[in-house]
Amino acid sequence: MIQILELFGGIGAPRCALRNLGVPVKSIDYVEIDAKAVRSYNAMFAGELAYRPQDVRGWNLTPDVLVHGSPCQDFSIAGHQKGADPDSGTRSSLMWETLRIIRAMGEWRPRLVIWENVPNVLSKHMRHNFEKYLEAMRGMGYRNACDTLNATDFGLPQNRRRVFTVSTLGGKPFDFSALTHRSMTPIMDLLEPNVNARQYQVRQPSMLDKIGAPRGRFRGYVPIITDMAQTITTAQMRCPNSGVIDTGHGYRYLTERECWRLQGFADADYEAALSANPTRPGCMNGVLYRQAGNAMPVPILEEILTKTLN
Where is the signal peptide (predicted)? Predict the structure, then answer.
């Protein structure tokens, strides 16, 4: 039985990965401040103790595996690279709470710590925080390994690059080259047929003007999805987004279900989250888009956990 702690847990991608692998797992706690994400998590894992929203600050326990996807906004270019210095007060500075939690465990240490973040964490402006994190983990006895992984290499037709850091307690560092890549699923297998609802049609002139290759005075553009989507974002009705579908008589946005599928979640997971956060008639469900965009790709976690837990 693996005991897992999910910090900044979102909708529970690590838990889904372990479930899909058939690994007996006990979530000794799940920490997420977004009440709507907590509702989805509780609905997806029926029968579990109903978790309540809680802040990562001031928390501790003793897990075997700790997974944290601390907020990435202030590392990203879109978030103006505000950074994560310990005294900055940014959302991304909450990464230091993970280190505080591990230290507060006393002699206990999780044997595996996984951290996921945006590629810009390795940029010249942000890398000093990344190096401080690695140094702190080494000081607690961990061997660190990191690599930039793309969801396209793990079966998902989504161009999503993220930095994964795997820290193991003692022994050899994790070998990213041992990960098994999967052929990309045809995107048509994940798209819903006959999506005609008005709310998914691209009708805003500001969006229509940006569809296709970059041109004119517009700095951004909206790609047309052919073989893969771009990174699943927390909202679709914006530029940049994950791309749009050419229906032959116009363009449409990805549906909420499609975004969940493109992150590797099962339809049953989506249906559970939908039951907890219903869609208003005639509207797009911003809650479910945001939860998909903030999640980690489940197949990547499956592969990392397969190699680390065997």
Answer: none
